[in-house]
Amino acid sequence: MSNVVNFSMLSVLLFLAFPENSVALPCKNSPARGQLVFLDWGREPVDVWEAIPFEMHRVTLPNKYVIGVTINEAPENVYQEAFDARGGFAVEMIEVSVFDLQGESPKLVGHNFAGSNSKQGYRDIGNPESDVAAKKKGIHLLLINPVCISESDYFNSH
After folding, report:
1. Which of 85, 98, 118, 123 could be 138's S-S partner, Cβ–Cβ 3.0 to 4.6 Å?
2. Considering only CA atoms, which of 145, 123, 125 is closest in space to residue 53?
3. Per 3-state DSSP, what percentage of the chain is helix, strand, and coil (rounded to 5)?
4. CA-based radius of gyration for the chain
5. 150 and 29 Cβ atoms separated by less than 8 Å
6. Residues 132/20, Cβ–Cβ less than 8 Å
7. Helix count (H) and strand count (E) of the chain?
8. Which of 51, 20, 153, 145 is nearest to 91 (CA)?
């Protein structure tokens, strides 16, 4: 139970930490869902955005290191593996890719499949080799994808 409370509290705190950002809450004007991404470096909030599939979001970390993050739907085979492993059940999955944008072309430095409502950590990303203190920070992504229902859906089901 404490993990659920902490996750919820962290979500609220992150929303409050970014009042200047124009991230619209998903479901505000339509029942369409939106994948929210909260990025911190160490324990320092850095950016919040609504992910757009196949579009790289560029982030400059406090140490001026530049990364890119893409969030896409997980392919069918990922779900099949999850169904097989969990007896026919799976959480909603997404594909997360993190890129180093310091060079001439993006370099993939992190990739995984994650729950669309989860926290992901990448300890060595965003840290130049020479920055030993930064090595301990890394980036964390808090991924939130709410289920949206319309008023008519709700009242017709009760």
Report:
1. 123
2. 145
3. 25, 35, 45
4. 17
5. no
6. no
7. 3, 8
8. 145
Distance from C-alpha of 130 to C-alpha of 134, rounded to nearest angstrom: 9
* Structure tokens that stand for 96 in this block: 């997360």
Q: What is the largest CA-CA distance in the chain?
A: 60
β-strands 118-122, 66-73 pairing: unpaired
| Residues contacting 41, CB < 8 A, separation 6+ | 61, 62, 63, 126, 137, 138, 139, 140
What pLDDT digit, counting tens, does each position of 4-25 carry? 444 445 555 544 444 444 444 5
Q: Which of 81, 80, 109, 75 shows the shortest CA–CA distance to 94?
A: 75
Q: What is the DSSP string of 1-64?
A: -HHHHHHHHHHHHHHHH-TTS--PPTTSSSS----EEEEEETTEEEEEEE--TT-PEEEE-TTS
- Tokens 């599939």, residue located: 53
User: Tokens at residue 108, please?
Assistant: 């993939």
Low-confidence ranges of the chain (pLDDT < 70): 1-32, 126-136, 153, 157-158
From the list 23, 29, 32, the residue with the least C-alpha distance to 148 is 32
pLDDT digits (tens, 9 = 90+) for 48-64: 999 999 999 999 999 89
